[in-house]
Protein backbone atom coordinates (compact mmCIF):
# COMPACT_ATOMS: atom_id res chain seq x y z
CA UNK A 1 0.00 0.00 0.00
CA UNK A 2 1.31 3.47 -0.89
CA UNK A 3 1.56 6.01 1.93
CA UNK A 4 2.40 9.69 1.65
CA UNK A 5 5.21 10.91 3.88
CA UNK A 6 6.27 14.43 4.74
CA UNK A 7 9.67 13.95 3.11
CA UNK A 8 9.53 13.24 -0.64
CA UNK A 9 11.84 10.51 -1.86
CA UNK A 10 15.04 11.56 -3.59
CA UNK A 11 15.36 15.00 -2.01
CA UNK A 12 18.40 15.95 0.04
CA UNK A 13 18.11 17.34 3.53
CA UNK A 14 19.40 20.71 2.30
CA UNK A 15 16.76 20.87 -0.44
CA UNK A 16 14.05 19.85 1.99
CA UNK A 17 15.18 22.53 4.45
CA UNK A 18 15.00 25.21 1.77
CA UNK A 19 11.52 24.06 0.75
CA UNK A 20 10.25 24.14 4.33
CA UNK A 21 11.74 27.59 4.98
CA UNK A 22 10.12 28.96 1.81
CA UNK A 23 6.80 27.48 2.90
CA UNK A 24 6.61 29.75 5.95
CA UNK A 25 7.13 33.04 4.05
CA UNK A 26 9.75 34.19 6.54
CA UNK A 27 10.59 37.42 4.70
CA UNK A 28 7.03 38.62 5.20
CA UNK A 29 7.09 37.23 8.72
CA UNK A 30 10.21 39.20 9.62
CA UNK A 31 8.61 42.41 8.35
CA UNK A 32 5.49 41.77 10.43
CA UNK A 33 7.68 40.94 13.44
CA UNK A 34 9.45 44.29 13.03
CA UNK A 35 6.12 46.13 13.00
CA UNK A 36 5.27 44.45 16.31
CA UNK A 37 8.57 45.56 17.82
CA UNK A 38 7.92 49.10 16.59
CA UNK A 39 4.51 48.99 18.27
CA UNK A 40 6.30 48.06 21.48
CA UNK A 41 8.92 50.80 21.02
CA UNK A 42 6.44 53.65 20.54
CA UNK A 43 4.22 52.71 23.48
CA UNK A 44 4.78 54.61 26.73
CA UNK A 45 5.22 52.49 29.82
CA UNK A 46 7.77 50.42 31.72
CA UNK A 47 10.67 49.07 29.67
CA UNK A 48 10.04 45.46 28.64
CA UNK A 49 12.40 42.72 29.73
CA UNK A 50 14.56 40.90 27.21
CA UNK A 51 12.31 37.84 27.62
CA UNK A 52 9.23 39.91 26.76
CA UNK A 53 10.89 41.35 23.65
CA UNK A 54 11.98 37.91 22.48
CA UNK A 55 8.59 36.32 23.12
CA UNK A 56 6.81 39.13 21.27
CA UNK A 57 9.16 38.83 18.29
CA UNK A 58 9.01 35.05 18.10
CA UNK A 59 5.29 34.73 18.74
CA UNK A 60 4.45 37.19 15.96
CA UNK A 61 7.00 35.60 13.60
CA UNK A 62 5.74 32.06 14.26
CA UNK A 63 2.06 33.06 14.01
CA UNK A 64 2.79 34.80 10.71
CA UNK A 65 4.71 31.75 9.50
CA UNK A 66 1.82 29.44 10.29
CA UNK A 67 -0.61 31.71 8.39
CA UNK A 68 1.78 31.95 5.43
CA UNK A 69 2.12 28.17 5.27
CA UNK A 70 -1.65 27.77 5.50
CA UNK A 71 -2.03 30.19 2.59
CA UNK A 72 0.26 28.06 0.43
CA UNK A 73 -1.45 24.85 1.55
CA UNK A 74 -4.88 26.15 0.55
CA UNK A 75 -3.75 27.71 -2.73
CA UNK A 76 -1.43 24.96 -4.00
CA UNK A 77 -3.54 24.36 -7.13
CA UNK A 78 -4.04 28.01 -8.12
CA UNK A 79 -0.34 28.68 -7.40
CA UNK A 80 0.50 26.37 -10.31
CA UNK A 81 -1.31 28.74 -12.68
CA UNK A 82 0.80 31.79 -11.82
CA UNK A 83 4.40 32.38 -12.87
CA UNK A 84 5.12 34.18 -9.60
CA UNK A 85 3.97 31.26 -7.43
CA UNK A 86 4.30 28.09 -9.49
CA UNK A 87 7.69 27.35 -7.91
CA UNK A 88 6.25 27.08 -4.39
CA UNK A 89 6.85 23.78 -2.64
CA UNK A 90 3.24 22.55 -2.50
CA UNK A 91 2.61 23.67 -6.08
CA UNK A 92 5.59 21.75 -7.46
CA UNK A 93 5.11 18.72 -5.24
CA UNK A 94 8.48 19.28 -3.58
CA UNK A 95 6.51 18.99 -0.35
CA UNK A 96 3.49 16.65 -0.32
CA UNK A 97 0.09 18.23 0.20
CA UNK A 98 -0.55 16.22 3.35
CA UNK A 99 -2.98 17.02 6.20
CA UNK A 100 -0.15 16.58 8.69
CA UNK A 101 1.03 20.03 7.65
CA UNK A 102 -2.24 21.49 8.92
CA UNK A 103 -1.59 19.92 12.32
CA UNK A 104 1.89 21.46 12.37
CA UNK A 105 0.51 24.89 11.46
CA UNK A 106 -2.10 24.65 14.21
CA UNK A 107 0.53 23.65 16.78
CA UNK A 108 2.77 26.55 15.76
CA UNK A 109 -0.06 29.07 16.02
CA UNK A 110 -1.26 27.68 19.35
CA UNK A 111 2.27 27.78 20.73
CA UNK A 112 2.76 31.37 19.59
CA UNK A 113 -0.50 32.56 21.11
CA UNK A 114 0.04 30.65 24.35
CA UNK A 115 3.56 32.05 24.73
CA UNK A 116 2.30 35.60 24.25
CA UNK A 117 -0.47 34.96 26.79
CA UNK A 118 1.88 33.54 29.44
CA UNK A 119 4.80 35.98 29.09
CA UNK A 120 3.02 39.14 27.90
CA UNK A 121 -0.74 39.34 28.50
CA UNK A 122 -4.09 38.30 27.08
CA UNK A 123 -4.51 41.39 24.90
CA UNK A 124 -1.16 40.86 23.17
CA UNK A 125 -1.99 37.18 22.64
CA UNK A 126 -5.35 38.11 21.12
CA UNK A 127 -3.73 40.48 18.62
CA UNK A 128 -1.13 37.83 17.71
CA UNK A 129 -3.97 35.40 16.98
CA UNK A 130 -6.05 37.94 15.05
CA UNK A 131 -3.14 38.79 12.76
CA UNK A 132 -2.79 35.14 11.70
CA UNK A 133 -6.54 34.61 11.57
CA UNK A 134 -7.20 37.56 9.29
CA UNK A 135 -4.49 36.51 6.83
CA UNK A 136 -5.09 32.78 6.93
CA UNK A 137 -8.88 32.63 7.20
CA UNK A 138 -10.48 36.00 6.43
CA UNK A 139 -8.22 36.85 3.48
CA UNK A 140 -7.19 33.43 2.12
CA UNK A 141 -10.39 31.45 2.65
CA UNK A 142 -13.20 34.01 2.66
CA UNK A 143 -12.27 37.03 0.57
CA UNK A 144 -9.47 36.39 -1.90
CA UNK A 145 -11.67 34.73 -4.54
CA UNK A 146 -14.86 36.61 -3.74
CA UNK A 147 -14.10 40.33 -3.99
CA UNK A 148 -11.58 42.78 -5.37
CA UNK A 149 -11.53 44.34 -1.89
CA UNK A 150 -9.87 41.17 -0.57
CA UNK A 151 -6.52 42.75 0.24
CA UNK A 152 -8.13 45.77 1.91
CA UNK A 153 -9.54 43.65 4.72
CA UNK A 154 -6.54 41.34 4.58
CA UNK A 155 -4.40 44.36 5.41
CA UNK A 156 -5.61 44.16 8.99
CA UNK A 157 -3.12 41.34 9.54
CA UNK A 158 -0.23 43.82 9.69
CA UNK A 159 -2.19 46.24 11.84
CA UNK A 160 -2.71 43.60 14.51
CA UNK A 161 1.05 43.08 14.77
CA UNK A 162 1.53 46.73 15.74
CA UNK A 163 -1.22 46.40 18.33
CA UNK A 164 0.31 43.19 19.68
CA UNK A 165 3.56 45.05 20.34
CA UNK A 166 1.77 47.97 21.94
CA UNK A 167 -0.41 45.71 24.09
CA UNK A 168 2.71 43.99 25.41
CA UNK A 169 3.48 47.29 27.16
CA UNK A 170 -0.08 48.42 27.86
CA UNK A 171 -3.12 46.17 27.26
CA UNK A 172 -5.00 49.33 26.30
CA UNK A 173 -2.83 50.87 23.55
CA UNK A 174 -2.75 54.65 23.26
CA UNK A 175 -3.44 56.75 20.15
CA UNK A 176 0.06 56.49 18.64
CA UNK A 177 0.01 52.68 18.21
CA UNK A 178 -3.53 52.85 16.86
CA UNK A 179 -2.45 55.43 14.29
CA UNK A 180 0.51 53.29 13.25
CA UNK A 181 -1.92 50.37 12.92
CA UNK A 182 -4.02 52.58 10.63
CA UNK A 183 -0.91 53.31 8.57
CA UNK A 184 -0.26 49.57 8.16
CA UNK A 185 -3.89 49.05 7.18
CA UNK A 186 -3.70 51.76 4.50
CA UNK A 187 -0.28 50.63 3.29
CA UNK A 188 -1.26 47.11 2.25
CA UNK A 189 -3.70 47.90 -0.62
CA UNK A 190 -1.46 50.19 -2.73
CA UNK A 191 1.51 47.93 -2.00
CA UNK A 192 -0.27 44.79 -3.17
CA UNK A 193 -2.26 46.42 -5.97
CA UNK A 194 0.98 47.70 -7.50
CA UNK A 195 2.27 44.14 -7.59
CA UNK A 196 -1.08 42.91 -8.90
CA UNK A 197 -0.94 45.38 -11.80
CA UNK A 198 2.49 44.00 -12.73
CA UNK A 199 1.14 40.43 -12.52
CA UNK A 200 -2.39 41.07 -13.77
CA UNK A 201 -2.28 38.29 -16.39
CA UNK A 202 -1.29 35.75 -13.73
CA UNK A 203 -4.20 36.66 -11.48
CA UNK A 204 -6.62 36.62 -14.40
CA UNK A 205 -5.44 33.16 -15.43
CA UNK A 206 -5.80 31.89 -11.87
CA UNK A 207 -9.29 33.39 -11.56
CA UNK A 208 -8.39 35.65 -8.64
CA UNK A 209 -10.43 38.90 -8.72
CA UNK A 210 -7.63 41.28 -7.81
CA UNK A 211 -8.49 44.93 -8.49
CA UNK A 212 -6.54 45.26 -11.79
CA UNK A 213 -8.32 42.16 -13.13
CA UNK A 214 -11.77 43.51 -12.21
CA UNK A 215 -11.47 47.20 -13.17
CA UNK A 216 -8.47 47.19 -15.53
CA UNK A 217 -4.88 48.32 -14.89
CA UNK A 218 -5.41 52.03 -15.64
CA UNK A 219 -8.25 52.48 -13.17
CA UNK A 220 -6.42 50.33 -10.64
CA UNK A 221 -3.34 52.55 -11.03
CA UNK A 222 -5.41 55.65 -10.29
CA UNK A 223 -6.77 53.88 -7.21
CA UNK A 224 -3.21 53.13 -6.13
CA UNK A 225 -2.37 56.83 -6.39
CA UNK A 226 -5.39 57.89 -4.33
CA UNK A 227 -4.66 55.18 -1.77
CA UNK A 228 -1.01 56.22 -1.53
CA UNK A 229 -1.96 59.85 -0.92
CA UNK A 230 -4.36 58.71 1.82
CA UNK A 231 -1.56 56.61 3.31
CA UNK A 232 0.83 59.56 3.22
CA UNK A 233 -1.65 61.82 5.01
CA UNK A 234 -2.34 59.14 7.63
CA UNK A 235 1.38 58.64 8.20
CA UNK A 236 1.64 62.30 9.29
CA UNK A 237 -1.12 62.01 11.92
CA UNK A 238 1.20 60.54 14.61
CA UNK A 239 3.01 63.89 14.65
CA UNK A 240 0.03 65.26 16.55
CA UNK A 241 0.25 62.49 19.16
CA UNK A 242 3.84 62.49 20.32
CA UNK A 243 5.88 61.36 17.32
CA UNK A 244 9.05 63.45 17.02
CA UNK A 245 11.33 64.92 14.34
CA UNK A 246 12.99 61.65 13.36
CA UNK A 247 9.60 60.16 12.61
CA UNK A 248 8.64 63.31 10.69
CA UNK A 249 11.67 63.01 8.41
CA UNK A 250 10.99 59.32 7.79
CA UNK A 251 7.28 59.85 7.10
CA UNK A 252 7.95 62.72 4.68
CA UNK A 253 10.85 61.10 2.82
CA UNK A 254 9.35 57.64 2.45
CA UNK A 255 5.81 58.89 1.85
CA UNK A 256 6.69 61.43 -0.83
CA UNK A 257 8.83 58.84 -2.62
CA UNK A 258 5.91 56.39 -2.70
CA UNK A 259 3.47 59.08 -3.84
CA UNK A 260 5.82 60.05 -6.67
CA UNK A 261 6.22 56.46 -7.86
CA UNK A 262 2.48 55.84 -7.72
CA UNK A 263 1.93 59.07 -9.69
CA UNK A 264 4.30 57.73 -12.38
CA UNK A 265 2.27 54.51 -12.38
CA UNK A 266 -1.00 56.41 -12.86
CA UNK A 267 0.52 58.42 -15.73
CA UNK A 268 1.92 55.42 -17.60
CA UNK A 269 0.62 52.04 -16.47
CA UNK A 270 3.07 49.30 -17.36
CA UNK A 271 5.00 46.56 -15.57
CA UNK A 272 8.06 48.75 -14.94
CA UNK A 273 6.11 51.57 -13.28
CA UNK A 274 4.02 49.05 -11.34
CA UNK A 275 7.11 47.37 -9.93
CA UNK A 276 8.58 50.81 -9.24
CA UNK A 277 5.52 51.63 -7.14
CA UNK A 278 5.70 48.23 -5.43
CA UNK A 279 9.34 48.68 -4.41
CA UNK A 280 8.64 52.27 -3.32
CA UNK A 281 6.01 50.91 -0.94
CA UNK A 282 8.65 48.69 0.67
CA UNK A 283 11.02 51.64 0.97
CA UNK A 284 8.29 53.79 2.48
CA UNK A 285 7.35 51.23 5.11
CA UNK A 286 10.95 50.40 5.96
CA UNK A 287 11.92 54.05 6.41
CA UNK A 288 8.78 54.74 8.43
CA UNK A 289 9.32 51.80 10.78
CA UNK A 290 12.99 52.60 11.35
CA UNK A 291 12.18 56.25 12.00
CA UNK A 292 9.35 55.35 14.40
CA UNK A 293 11.61 52.95 16.27
CA UNK A 294 14.44 55.48 16.61
CA UNK A 295 11.97 58.15 17.62
CA UNK A 296 10.47 55.86 20.26
CA UNK A 297 13.85 55.08 21.80
CA UNK A 298 14.80 58.78 21.85
CA UNK A 299 11.72 59.78 23.84
Low-confidence stretches: 1-5
Tally the helices: what do you get?
A: 15
Q: Mean pLDDT score, rounded?
A: 89
Compute the number of structural domains: 2
Radius of gyration: 20 Å
Under the CATH scheme, the architecture of the largest domain is Orthogonal Bundle
Concise synopsis of the structure shown:
The protein is mostly helical and 299 residues long. It has 2 domains: 13-171, UbiA prenyltransferase (Tetracycline Repressor, domain 2); 174-299, Four Helix Bundle (Hemerythrin (Met), subunit A) (Up-down Bundle). The chain is built from 15 helices and no strands.
Kindly describe this structure:
The protein has 15 helices and no strands. The protein is mainly α and 299 residues long. α3 packs antiparallel against α6 and α14 packs antiparallel against α15. The longest helix has 28 residues. It is globular.
Amino acid sequence: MHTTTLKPAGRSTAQLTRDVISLFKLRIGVLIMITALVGMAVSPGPAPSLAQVLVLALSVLIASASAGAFNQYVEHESDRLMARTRGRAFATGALPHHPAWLALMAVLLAGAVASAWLVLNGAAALYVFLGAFFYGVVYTLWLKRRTSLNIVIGGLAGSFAVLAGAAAIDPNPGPLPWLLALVLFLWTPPHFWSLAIANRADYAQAGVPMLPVVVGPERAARTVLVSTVALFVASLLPLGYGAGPVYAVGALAGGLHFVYKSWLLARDTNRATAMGSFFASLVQLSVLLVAACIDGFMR
